[in-house]
Amino acid sequence: MTAGFPERLAEWLDTFDDAVEFAPATPVQVERFSSGWERPAPESLTQLWLEFGSCRFDGEATLLGTSFVLHTIHGLDDTEHGIAATRQRQPVLERAGLIPVVDDAGGTEFGWSRRDGSVVAVRPDGRIEPLFESIEQLWDQVSVREWDTSQAAVSAAAEPDAVDEPEPLGQVTFAAVRHEFGHHLCIITDTDPGEVYQGSLDERGLGRTDSALSLATADREVTVTLATQAQAPAETPGVQLVWEGKRDAPTGEIGVMTTNGLILMYCPSPPRARIRLWVNEIPEPDRILVVVG
Predict the structure, then answer these.
(1) Architecture of domain 155-292
(2) How many other C-beta atoms are found inside a 10 Å radius of the C-beta of residue 22?
(3) CB burial class (10 A; 0-12, 13-18, 19+) of residue 49?
(4) How many other CB atoms are found less than 10 A from the CB of residue 20?
(5) 1, 13, 66, 69: which could join 5 in a potential S-S bond, CB 3.0 to 4.6 Å?
(6) What's the pLDDT tens digit per position in 226-267?
(7) CATH class of 9-145
(8) How far apart are CA 59 and CA 79, in angstroms?
(9) What are the Cα distances from residue 41, in Å, to 31, 36, 237?
């Protein structure tokens, strides 16, 4: 790797699928893409395109001193993770003269400015926040640790039906777990969701698909309570209703899931489940109540 670019970065990167290799760009592609810019692309960025293309971090990547959890590095390839597709999803990048470099699990894009060489954060709602004076400062602040794939972080909570074992609770009607969520995302979904949802979040830290809700959580241990309508508490002190609606549940079960696909607990539900979601603060709560009816 080039000067100013962490040599260890090569050890941090992985493809999106075992069957799909890295798709590096050619020197001609890089030259065509960057021609006419106000300033040349940083050598570390072009080296990334030439050696890897779009890829993800093989571990939990955070920006030191922030709550951002990095996920996808964008290349020049013609995929949903590439720069072209990313700019189509977030038009403000093109208007502001920004080249998307990497995103985080909540939908924030980090763009390098062709105009002044700085790096900014582009929020899902289009807001732009300055972060670093150069892309080298961005790389210097990246910290990656291996995924914790064990279930040891799941523990009992002082709630009805919680168990004193570091294991998922299985089917419940009223129970709670304490868990520090990877990517700081809690997924509420049918227990056979296919691909785990990690889409863009709104200003409340909430994302939605037909069958799943994705909620940004606090960067610490979080208590999640799951209850059926029949067993739901009559009063909910200390939390506020943040979402109410229906989601598909073809398995007849709604579960609380991590982004690694670990189902912490689940409860029975109708095929079209009515879900109500309470939290103690917006965004990034550390107390969550999910009621399924």
Answers:
(1) Sandwich (2.60)
(2) 15
(3) buried
(4) 11
(5) 1
(6) 999 888 877 777 888 888 888 888 999 999 988 778 889 999
(7) alpha beta
(8) 22
(9) 10, 11, 53
